[in-house]
Amino acid sequence: MLKINIEYPVMVSGATGYVAGVLIQKLLREGFTVHAAVRNPENSEKLKYLNNVAKTSKGRIKYFKADLLDNGSYEKSMQGCEVVFHTASPFFLDSNDPQKELVEPAQLGTRNVLESVNNTESVTRVILTSSCAAIYGDNIDLQNSKNNIFTEADWNTSSSLNHNPYSYSKMLAEKAAWEICEKQDRWSLVTINPSLVVGPGINPFTTSESYKIIKQFGDGTMKAGLPDWGLGVVDVRDVADAHYNAAFTPQAHGRYIVSGHNTSFPAMAKVLYEKYGSKYLIPNRTLPKWFVWLVGPIVNRVMTRKAISKNVNFSWVGDNSKGIKQLGISYRPFQESLHELFQQMVNNGIIK
Ligand code: NAP
């Protein structure tokens, strides 16, 4: 039975990532030996943030070289581990070749990692970092969900290679994971499905799309105003806790929506404007949908007319009750997460 046992190492894929960094920080503080799977263990500049955390924690970190597209490359890193956290997956929205850049690493990568799990006798639980993007594609999909609220019963059926390809990649990856899991009974799979993750990471220069989005709130990109686009938001520390609790709660099962707040881009801007509006070019205007439809695709190619018509002026509502009840997740206030991330970017010269 799974319980918190720091005698066993735990494996984390994509250890250099934003979400993984905060999860590893938690695992190291609890005293675990973390097998950190990274693309390049020689990149000391990228690993210094994890090394700094390890220096002041009870636990130890060991690096292993692995790539999502290199079959079998994760096997060494999971030897002796009971728990595997599979977080690695590219998270960016603007892609020239979504099949190669997003779908293959997400879907094939998940298959590769889980085939290695099948070959590794010690593993009894896998926590997959999925996403709310595997639950829905566009905000308008809410109209087809039961009681107009997204739950773990919903699947994204509206994304494709040409429309929201990142969301498509996450849906395909999670489906692949469930298919592989159902063919065996040694290890159990739990998926964590976060909404947009915010809050301070251990590496202020992370490549995650989360940072790119928040940067745009403060660097003047959106100073003319924002579309009324609904979304869910969650603090990275709450996401780390959810992964941890999912690993060590024996009864945890299935998918968990991990989302602290049902909100929108204008509501996020308001929170930042109240604290930082006098110093930074934070938007304080909501743009009309017709204007976004006309100009959006010209200023940002990710914002297609199809995406605008199906998301702007639509709210997002997610049901986070399963995770609260079964994993004991409690959510930080929205203001705290946004202010602390913004401040981290200011302190590191990312927002000037
Ligand atoms: P991130 O900082 O960009 O992390 C992505 C990680 O994946 C990095 O460690 C990256 O390694 C690794 N990776 C990408 N391609 C790889 C490949 N071919 N082989 C091995 N590793 C590869 O993004 P993040 O926000 O932390 O995302 C982590 C996970 O959370 C992803 O599964 C993402 O879909 C999920 N998620 C994120 C959010 C969010 O709002 N941030 C919300 C829901 C779900 P390198 O450092 O070597 O590039």
Question: Key terms for this structure?
Answer:
three-stranded mixed sheet; 352 residues; 11 helices; single chain; binds NADP nicotinamide-adenine-dinucleotide phosphate; globular; alpha/beta
Gap from first CA to last CA: 50 Å
What is the third-level CATH name, the topology? Answer: Rossmann fold
Binned strand content: 15-25%
Instruction: Write the CATH homologous superfamily.
Output: NAD(P)-binding Rossmann-like Domain
Q: Helix count, per DSSP? A: 11
Structure characterization notes:
- The chain is an alpha/beta fold and 352 residues long.
- It has one domain (10-347): Rossmann fold (3-Layer(aba) Sandwich).
- Helix content is 39%, strand content 15%.
- The chain contains eleven helices and twelve strands.
- The protein has a seven-stranded parallel β-sheet with strand order 3-2-1-4-5-6-10, with helices on both faces.
- The termini are far apart.
- The model has no long low-confidence stretch (mean pLDDT 96).
- NADP nicotinamide-adenine-dinucleotide phosphate is lined by residues 14, 16-20, 39, 67-69, 87-91, 105, 129, 131, 170, 194, 196-197, 206-208, 210.
- NADP nicotinamide-adenine-dinucleotide phosphate binds next to helix 1 and strand 7.
Question: What is shown here, in short?
Answer:
The chain has 352 residues and is of the alpha/beta class. The chain has helices at residues 18-30, 44-55, 98-118, 165-182, 209-218, 236-248, 265-276, 289-299, 305-311, 321-327, 334-347, and strands spanning 10-13, 33-38, 60-65, 83-86, 125-129, 188-194, 196-198, 226-227, 230-235, 254-258, 261-264, 286-287.
